[in-house]
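W.,

You were right to be curious about this one. When I first looked at the sequence I had no strong expectations either way, so I just let the prediction run and decided to look at it fresh. Below is the sequence, 434 residues in total, followed by the output.
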Amino acid sequence: SGYRLCIMRTLPSVLARTLTSGTSGSAGLPDMFEVRSKLRDIVGASTNWRDHVQAMQERKALHTLLAKRQEDLPPRRMKDSYLEVILPLGSQPEIREKYLNVHNSVRFGRILEDLDSLGVLICYTHTKQEMQPRSPLSIVTALVDKINLCQKIIHPDCDIKFTGNVSWVGKTSMEVKMHMLQLHDGDYSPVLDATFVMVARDPENKRPAFVNPLIPESPEEEEIFKQGELNKLKRIDFSTASLLKMAPTAEERNIVHDIFLNTLDTRQEGEGTVSFQSRKLPPNSVWMEDAKLKGLQICHPEERNIFNRIFGGFLMRKAFELGWATACSYGGSRPFIISVDDIMFQKPVEVGSLLLLSGQVCYTEKNYIQIRVHSEVYNANTREHHTTNIFHFTFISENEVPQVVPKTYGGKYLFKSMLYLDGKRHFTAVMKEI
């Protein structure tokens, strides 16, 4: 129908695969419940917590199905992994409550959970072995490269459609591009684009495992694949240039020095003496020390993923909600998310962990607030803390916000200066994209 073609023109042509004939725009598409159910079937995970350990033991036997070399696996095309999933907020009002926030729009944290599940299913679709109902691969989220939004408000009473496919493949990792659209006046219009990186591991989730190579079929697909390769190199460069590994640039040192001079308190007794220890806050500013919020989460079995670890989407939702609260309390008005950037999943989080989240305003400019959320787990038995994730969120506030200022001398204040510069780097990268 003309209506279906109209939907498809809003998507890149590589994704324009015809929907099942005879269906209207979204009828017949799987929903998020089916996505998660399918993931459990692929892995053989149980919905019952007590049976889960047994199910994981049974996965060990799948070791024999792993490829010894990537060359032994059949190549796949981008359209082989292409999926469309419906979130029927308009046609099934009973699911709205879970997605609704107090401002009568959709909770973005829930969207992060859905993107995470969909990204994993897309990768399992790419690596599917025809005769095997169960996959020997453990596919987990390694990185959220970026999520850029082109709509401030996501409506709670209109159907949402997710589309996505594998866009680049290494030896053991896959990049997934996903798009989210929302139905308005009979047409699906874009809301966000997301790029995730997934890694494949053996059935016990211990060692890397090979995945099917990807063969681009057109100049457009060649371009998408090349972009995936560039994204990988860009991530390596960004990581190498991290402030934790490399000194700030001359320009960045000047920024910190200017802040330092700006915050010196020159009102001292005696002529010409200035104490480096005494600081004053410039007008319409807030110390970074006073621009943070903390949260604690007990990781219950309900939040587990198909591998008996805490679901990455749940961690993202909790981090986002703390980030939003930090931006809200800092700016004093409602913030809107415009970008999620560079989320590294460094360590899995075990069920039963105490998850400590720390939200910090790192950088501000006009209405923009750059937030860093640090996530760590605390093991009550060993009394050890381990960083699991760092999250970067860019918000735009309804009103102009005060400038956040690091105290720039020695010790922990030096660390705050590095956070400030790191926040500025992330903000600049996001603004270039937008």
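Here's what jumped out at me. Confidence is low (pLDDT under 50) at residues 1-24. And, maybe more interesting for your project: Residues 411-433 form the longest helix (23 residues).

Coffee later to discuss?

I.
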